[in-house]
Design a protein that fits this description.
The complex is a heterodimer of chains A (305) and B (285). Chain A is mostly helical and 305 residues long. Chain A has one domain. Chain A has helices at residues 2-15, 18-41, 45-57, 61-94, 97-100, 104-107, 114-154, 159-164, 169-186, 188-200, 205-224, 228-234, 248-251, 261-264, 272-276, 279-301. By secondary structure, chain B is α/β, with parallel strands linked by helices. Helices cover 34% and strands 29% of the residues of chain B. Chain B has a six-stranded mixed β-sheet with strand order 5-6-7-3-8-9, with helices on both faces. Chain B is globular. The two termini of chain B are 37 Å apart. The chains are: A mainly alpha (305), B alpha/beta (285). The interface between A and B is medium-sized, with 26 and 36 residues.
Chain lengths: 305, 285
């Protein structure tokens, strides 16, 4: 069972190379961006000297941490966005392509149940893509920190103190992992819906997946003057119940220019218990399970000839 | 003899169309059964029911299992080629072998690599880079390396040229088949497989028209080529089919002793193709 599942997951990555190509492409862009910025900054020698002097002598650990965390959060955000788009295309293709090229007849000639096959696609979307994303985020951070350290050292500053001494790596990476996985679980009703459309539709899964999401709210509004569907579906995007209330004033306390250790820690802003006990999250998981069950049913019972 | 497939009153309908209509048959171990039928006769539906790919009414047991409910167990001991063009086009040969090795307990990768080394299929090639004949060789190499009790082939050589077709059946007989194994095969090209079959089954409009061992065909069916008076006399014996050839009448008899026809003309055992045409036309009357 587990052996089968591993083989099936591997198979998904073989077929959908974008699972690792997409984050790698983002990683290259981020790294090139860093290089370009460093080269550009190199042109302002005087200002740079003052900045480095300031960073080394005036700013405290927390300020340096905040600056690096800012960079981390920014880059992680780009990866997360790319992972979301990737997941949409992956899930819509996963059960459609095998029917289109008829290879479903081969896959179904192997001793693998339809449930195992569909679940492997769900795991790819909810676990494999997030893990691949976070792994690339970590690698990107390390590469960028090394590049920056070399550059800072070349300018005569102490990279060990300035960068490695200040960087809350573990905090940032664990936070990235939690946010990425939690986002995938939070968005799982969409993943389930896309898998179902992919298993069900005879043509253009992208259109078939999004048309109801656009048409149902319009129809609902015309006939019922309500927006129940739109509220349930679209407001999901913004309100993932993972974050503590953020005290923005404490973050930018201009008078003292002081940033506390706690505000800088990303993990301190995450509330995993709140997420895991959120009825909204579990409701979404149930919707996902229903769609996945329907996808398994369709793959098993529909005659493809 | 153990029977591997046991069907009692199996039916499958799509709306009002009865694709398979109350069919009963058995397939014994060690047989090569040819399932012959015109397009839309219900062959593929019947095979899908045997493979557990579609549900059906009636009693159907394959290797003692309910194929639809126990498909996974079943597929460990049964393999099939549904059509030659179904291998995923994006996959590499090595990936394909690795995948089958990890999900199939009865697959020998070594054996498959051995078969492939006799072909032009490179192990680092993607399926989309291979010709249709090579894809078939690849598929067959995998199937022949699975230690299965029953092999099901649905039009396995469709669209292949004559060289690949001959080689396909040659490999199947020489490298794969033995008394332990059983093969169920459907094809349009009856002439090509008739001498490798041990048993034959005709199906038309979802019903079985004939289910017999090949060697019994010579006892039950005889073809007479006659002309003039002899032909008229022969017609009185109730042929099941008749056609003209070189100005002579060719009459096909079922269950009429050769002794009764002796002296009326030239006698021979009909080819499967002729028999098939006669049976289908007879059923349509």
């Amino acid at each position: 069972m587990i052996g089968n599942q591993l083989a099936l997951l591997k198979r998904e990555v073989w077929e959908h190379r974008s699972i690792y190509v997409t984050p790698l492409a983002i990683a290259s862009i981020v790294t090139l961006g860093t290089l370009a910025m460093l080269m550009f900054a190199g042109g302002f020698a005087k200002q740079l000297d003052i900045a480095i002097f300031g960073a080394q002598n005036i700013a405290g650990d927390a300020e340096r941490q905040a600056a690096l965390t800012g960079f981390f959060v920014g880059t992680s955000g780009v990866f997360l966005l790319a992972a979301m788009i990737l997941t949409i295309f992956y899930t819509l293709d996963s059960l459609y392509a095998e029917r289109k090229d008829k290879s479903i007849l081969f896959w179904r000639s192997m001793p693998v149940t339809d449930a195992e096959a569909v679940v492997s696609k769900l795991i790819t979307a909810v676990v494999v893509i997030p893990l691949a994303t976070v792994a690339t985020v970590i690698a990107t951070h390390i590469v960028n920190l090394i590049v920056t350290s070399v550059w800072v050292s070349a300018k005569g500053a102490d990279a060990g103190h300035l960068i490695w001494g200040s960087v809350p790596l573990i905090d940032n990476w664990v936070a990235a992992l939690i946010v990425t996985l939690a986002s995938a679980i939070w968005m799982s009703p969409f993943i389930g819906w896309f898998l179902f459309v992919s298993a069900y539709t005879k043509r253009s899964p992208l259109l078939m997946a999004f048309m109801p999401l656009i048409l149902i709210p319009i129809i609902e509004f015309i006939f019922l003057r309500s927006s129940f569907f739109a509220d349930a579906v679209f407001s999901r995007k913004g309100m993932i119940p993972l974050f503590r209330g953020m005290d923005m004033e404490g973050f930018f306390d201009e008078d003292s220019l002081h940033i506390s250790e706690e505000t800088v820690s990303l993990l301190a802003h995450l509330d995993v218990v709140r997420f895991l006990t959120s009825p909204s999250m579990w409701g979404g998981v149930i919707v996902c399970a229903l769609f996945v069950t329907a996808a398994i049913y369709v793959r098993r019972y529909r005659d493809e000839s | 003899m153990t029977s591997l497939v046991n069907a009692r009153g199996v039916s499958k309908h799509f709306g009002a169309v009865r694709a398979v209509d109350d069919v009963s048959f058995e397939i014994e171990q060690g047989k090569i059964l040819g399932l012959i039928g015109p397009n839309g006769a219900g062959k593929t539906t019947l095979l899908k029911a045997v493979l557990g790919l579609t549900d059906c009414e009636g009693e159907l047991s394959v290797l003692g299992l309910d194929p639809f409910k126990q498909r996974k167990e079943l597929l460990q001991n049964i393999c099939f080629i549904a059509d030659v063009a179904v291998l995923p086009r994006w996959i590499r040969v090595t990936q394909l072998l690795e995948f089958v090795e990890s999900v199939h307990p009865n697959f020998s990768r070594k054996r498959a690599e051995n078969f492939l080394s006799q072909t032009k299929v490179r192990s680092d090639a993607k399926v989309r880079e291979l010709s249709k004949g090579m894809v078939t060789q690849l598929h067959l190499s995998i199937i022949m390396s699975i230690d299965a009790k029953l092999l099901v082939l649905d039009e396995p050589t469709l669209g292949l040229d004559i060289i690949f077709r001959k080689e396909f059946y040659g490999n199947l007989l020489n490298d794969y088949f033995d008394e332990e194994r059983t093969i169920l095969i459907t094809t349009h090209q009856v002439e090509e497989i008739e001498n490798l079959l041990t048993d034959i089954m005709f199906i038309n409009d979802g019903k079985i028209l004939l289910d017999a061992p090949m060697e019994s065909l010579a006892d039950s069916y005889v073809e007479l080529m006659a002309s003039g008076e002899d032909a008229i006399k022969a017609r009185g014996l109730g042929p099941i089919a008749e056609h003209e050839m070189f100005g002579k009448s060719v009459l096909l008899f079922e269950g009429v002793s050769r002794d009764n026809l002796e002296g009326l003309g030239e006698l021979r055992t009909p080819s499967v193709a002729d028999l098939f045409v006669a049976k289908v036309k007879g059923a349509r009357k």
